[in-house]
Amino acid sequence: MPRVLIVEDNDSERDALSRRLVRQGFEISVASDGAGAIERARMESPDIILMDCSLPDIDGWEAARRLKADPGTQSIPIIALTSQGVPDESERALDAGCNDVDTKPLDIPRLIGKIHRALGLPDRTRSLPPRGDG
């Protein structure tokens, strides 16, 4: 069961995403800020990190840079979660070392497809229900 670290400061968004990913067979851990993300990634070695970029204190871009600079966490794929329509967020995320970017509001089948590709898993997104936290 792939382990996903969700880094999101919005409780309702984090909970909804967690529920959807658990239903798809992922094991979840969470952090609400960049410092927590770095700590959890070092302790838990998740298979992948979903990183909101707009976080308090240490933002997602800086957290990604630190994780990619650390030999113990640099190989963990990071998918940045950015705000739709905000210029340069995607480019900043890739420059910070993120492997991929997805925009909010999240399209869950698309995001799960990106997770599967990053982990080298078969893409099962065709079998997912429509978007929502349902």
TrEMBL record:
Keywords: Phosphoprotein. InterPro entries: Bact_response_regulator (IPR050595), CheY-like_superfamily (IPR011006), Sig_transdc_resp-reg_receiver (IPR001789). Residues 3-119 form the Response regulatory domain. Transmembrane segments: none annotated. It holds the Pfam family Response_reg. The keyword Phosphoprotein applies. The modification 4-aspartylphosphate is found at residue 52. It comes from the Bacteria. This is Response regulator.
